[in-house]
Amino acid sequence: MEDIEDTDLVALEHDRLISAVSKLDKTQHITEPTRNEPTNLNSEFNLIKRTNKLNIDNVAKVLEDTAHHVQISKKLKKTQSGAKVLSKPLEKPQAERIKRATGYEETKKKVGRWDPVVARSRTVDYVTFPIKHVTAKLEPTSDFLTKFQLKSELEKELEEVDPQPMVEDEEEDEPIYPKSYEEMVEYRQHLAKMRAQQSYKAAKAKRQSKIKSKKFHRVLKKEKLKQELKEFEELQKKDPEEALKKLEAIEKARALERHTLRHKSTGKWAKNKLIRAKYDKEVRQQLADQLAVGRSLTKKLQDNQSSDDEADDEPTPTFTLSQDPFNPWMVQRSDKSNVNAEFDFGYKKFVQNKMNKQKESDDSDSDDNDVSEKDVLNEKLFKKEKSPSPEPMEEKITIPKANKEKLAGPKSKKGKKAAAKTKAKKPLATSNWDVEIVDDTDNNKPKDNLEYLKLKNQKTRAVIDEELMETSSKTAEGMANKEKDETISELVKAAQTPVQEPAADSNIDPNRFIEVKPKYLNTALSQVENEYDQLDDDQVVPRVNIEEVFEEDDVVASFRQEKEDEINKDKPEDINLTLPGWGAWGGKGVKPQKRKKNRFILKAPPKMPRRDENKGDIIIKEFKDPKLAVHKVKDVPFPFESVKDYEASIRAPLGNTFIPEKAHKKLIRPSVITKAGKIIEPMDEEELLVPKNRNFKNESVIKLLGRKK
Amino acid sequence: MKNPKKNAPKRYFDVEEKSSEQKEQDVEVYNIKNNKRTDNKRIQKRKPHKNFKGKAPIDPEKLEAHSRGEGVGKGVKHPLHAAKLRKKERKYTYAQEQAARAEILLTEDHGGLEVDEDVKTTAISQKIIAENVDISAATKIFELNLDFGPYRAKYSRNGRHLLLGSKKGHLAAFDWVTKKLHFEINVMESIHDISWMHTETMVAAAQKEWLYMYDNTGTELHCVKKMDKILRMEFLPYHFLLAAVNEFGFMTWLDISIGEVVGHYNNHLGRTSVIAQNPYNATICLGNSKGVVSLWSPTIKEPLAKILCHKTPLTAIAVDNRGMYMATSGVDRSMKIWDIRNLDGPVQHYRLRSAPVDLEFSQKDMLAVGLDEVVEIYNNCCSQTTDRPYLRHRMAKTITNFKYCPYEDVLGIGTRSGFTSIIVPGSGEPNFDALESNPFQNKKQRKEAEVKALLDKIPAELITLNPFDITEVDVPSLQEQMEAKKKLLYLKPKKMDFTPRHKKKGKTQIARKKIIKQVARKEFIEQAKEAQKALDLPQPESAKKPSFGVLDRFVPTVKTKK
């Protein structure tokens, strides 16, 4: 029993021991139950804003207890209130963009320094390389001789014992010096500047993007426009070609505008407005403005010439539509809204104003002699119109120039045609609509009448190239004024008919005119002939003029016939494509309609005058020699835009048998000359300071080559 | 930053005043060491010397003579190319100036006969000339009496050598100045015409059947059987072409540098032996029995132009060296001068007392007219009408042909019985271009010149009426090309101005006539006015209207018709 108790006791002891030992291990084999909850930091379901900010107030509160700590807390609070919170940095892409922009400007400036150097070397006749002429420096004799010292016996022996290691010719690298203090400072300043610029820009961008004021944006736009105009004006003075290009760009913008169909009544904004327009006058006005902008943008910038021609042809008076002044389509923007218009629009206006001004000045300049009939006529016309002319500037001013052109010389047919074409294309409908404020409808009435009459009158003229004009008001007065108006139309007609050149007199017979009178020369008579003459005398043979014996009358006639044939042979003939009986009755005795016949005749192109025309008994064959054509140039190469210029560029010979040797050498000098056997180093910055590079002033070339493509 | 606090502690981020200023100025500093090249001082221009006023001014007339015409205008818009073209133009003007300046080197002046007022130049015979010139010049007057019938004579291009060929087969070449004979053979056939080739070592003879070529020792080099029964031939030196016309009216153009016939066709003119070459454009002028002169080129089988010169058969044609004038003569005993460059005329019309046998222009435009056995030389007979000959030489034998010797005042006459050489003062070009043709050429120079001439050979196709055709753009085909390009989609057509440089709008006859007519009208009006003045007719005086002062405005104005 005791044993059992013993064993029990032992077992207890043993258990205790084991537990004690196991406790030594300190690991809990059975983990305590813990709660695992997702933290709010990286939950994807509930984004909870949690500030990591240290609330200093809380911290300071702890310190409030003791008097000593109060001081500290106060200080702490002070700093807290004085410190500014750094603004949130820009978004990365934006920041990068700004960084790139500033970097680009910096680099542009740096690379741009080379522009004149490059431009000069491109324009110059020839460039020689290497650029730097290495002066042949003479070595002093003593230095030179030192190299030839003989080695002493000792040296030789030493060398045998301990041969000198082959010293490699060290490539003398440019020693890289650490930056000096000043340089370091400079460098840092530079960097700081860059950073500052960047930050300014960033700040500005941020600030401006937040501005919601419409007025501000309006002002901004206005400013921008003004700036551009100013630049344009400057450009016009400095480089008219460039200005022209800019104008072209504007024209392109106009084309794009046409594509995009902006400023139309199709947008969301416009649709909304349209709904309200019924009730609100102001909205209507706005809509009208918008449409006016669109119209003016889509209107083609009138070519100087074509517009002139037009003004010349029919002075279209300004007129208003009195029907529906509220119609937004008909209302043109007032001058005030011009400011709000798109930039391009402003340009156009500007240019037009400019042109007007110029013409005015031209007008004033022109002498009294210059005032042609037509000028007078036009003046008359305008008087008759009696229009108060709120904005007839365009017409009035374009007329004198047209006259001038006429005076300068009758325009070539081709030019006229072109002008006519442009005229046909131009949509005038938009340009001349002057819409005024509702009130002065009374004022418009007389003008309208005249316009109506004019339209009628134009109808009778039946000119194909005429613009379409719409008028709707019908007045009875028109009939009364008809007579008056006819005179106007006559005047206009008279103005339109070009000054006919005096036709060449057709009754001049070239053969009758300067006939070279034969000159009788007292030439020597040959002995032989004299002998014959004497013989003749003896035999009493009637003397015959030799000319008469040999002269053949039909020689001249046959030659002329030949010429006639030659002329006829080359003449292109009309092609008749009529099919008798096609689309009409055919058969015997049925005459085809003349009109129909004419429709099917292909007119031959007009024949160029022959070289031998009016030259008497001379035939010059006119044909293209295909064998010669092989040798001829068929295309005009790049920089040339006219055949004349290209031909002029190859007019002079280069060979030394044609021109003096000196000139020949000058003309055939290669554009790049390199010295044989010389290493050509790349340019260094020293080249920027060379006077010839610094003095290179051909701005247009610099600009062209510096331009980023 | 402007008013920094006095006691404010200096912070590390405070920027110094100096550097801020720098920032404002926006000046960048690059450290580049100055050296000689970058020095400004070096380009200072030298002051003009007190005694040396610069280059002598050039006579504007001379400058105009060397002008190449109008330069490139402002048509080129590309600034870089425009700048380059401007530079090139400057070089062209430099070349022009240099050429004008180089005229000072042409020291020789062509001479002439100067006589007293009452003496005519025709009175001066060869004998008098020979007596009055130096011995070496006097040796240029000589006569060769040869027995083999009518002789034709031709000088080589440099005027040093003479070739004689007789109807009876006598062929001889010699240096006529030193009288050194190169060769003398009898080809045992009739010789119709002879010609020098590009050098004096080769001659061509048109014999009875075929064309033969000989070298300067008389060795036969070629027998060209493609060219048979040749009547007359002309050698075109710049094209290396031997142009010949045969008995049946066939024209043959033989390129002697490659030995190929470049043109062979019938001219449909019949047998004609009146031929001349136009040195200006290398066309061949043929005269026929109907009085028509036609101009021919090798590649075109039709005449380029035809001129009806006389109503009778032609006897001779001559074209002057610059290709300005052509002289023709017919059986009708008349001689006409034509403007062959513009194909216009006649400029002059002369009536002679007998029909000329031959005509020939000298280098200085003196026209020799052969009248059976008399040679008459006319000076200035083209631009103005002369009334008497400059020189006259009478011989005892009839003339077959004559040629002026280039660069000499010598006329060589082939006659029925030999050859006669006479002096015509002032007929030859006094200044020769040794690179072009050198009378004092040695063997090496000759070889050199031959190679050079071969390299500069002009293709036969370029023979046209206008030798500058080649410098012109083929406008019709250019237009065609442009039209074709316009048809292509998505290709921006190039803008092109097609007006050529030379518009070919010289004053035509009509224009000239109009001017004449206008002048005549003006004159008539002037005369009428003066006549009226002379008559002193009383002018119808308008009676002074009585004045009513302020009330004038109510007086009705009488309208007068104009």
TrEMBL record, chain A:
Any one biological process term the GO annotation gives: rRNA processing
Region span, Disordered: 292-333, 354-448
Subcellular location: Nucleus, Nucleolus
Gene Ontology CC: one annotated term: small-subunit processome
Keywords per UniProt: Nucleus, Phosphoprotein
Pfam families: Utp14
Signal peptide positions (record): none
Ranges annotated as biased composition (Basic and acidic residues): 371-408
Record field: compositional bias (Acidic residues): 306-315
Highest taxon of source: Eukaryota
InterPro entries: SSU_processome_Utp14
Keyword Transmembrane in annotation: no
Major localization listed first in the record, in broad terms: nucleus
Biased composition (Basic residues): 411-426
Similarity comment: Belongs to the UTP14 family.
Protein known as: U3 small nucleolar RNA-associated protein 14 homolog A
Organism: Spodoptera frugiperda
Automatic annotation (TrEMBL), chain B:
Places the protein is found: Nucleus, Nucleolus
Keywords tagged on the record: Nucleus, Repeat, rRNA processing, WD repeat
Domain BING4 C-terminal per the UniProt entry, residue ranges: 389-467
The keyword Transit peptide is annotated on this UniProt entry: no
Region (Disordered): 1-75
Residue windows of the WD repeats: 307-342
GO cellular component, one term: 90S preribosome
GO-annotated biological processes: maturation of SSU-rRNA from tricistronic rRNA transcript (SSU-rRNA, 5.8S rRNA, LSU-rRNA)
Pfam families according to UniProt: BING4CT (PF08149)
InterPro entries in the record: BING4_C_dom (IPR012952), WD40/YVTN_repeat-like_dom_sf (IPR015943), WD40_repeat_CS (IPR019775), WD40_repeat_dom_sf (IPR036322), WD40_rpt (IPR001680), WDR46/Utp7 (IPR040315)
Biased composition (Basic residues): 43-53
Leader sequence residues: none
Composition bias type Basic and acidic residues, residue spans: 11-26, 56-71
Chief location bin: nucleus
Name used for this protein in its record: WD repeat-containing protein 46
Biological source species: Spodoptera frugiperda (Fall armyworm)
Gene name per UniProt: LOC118267155
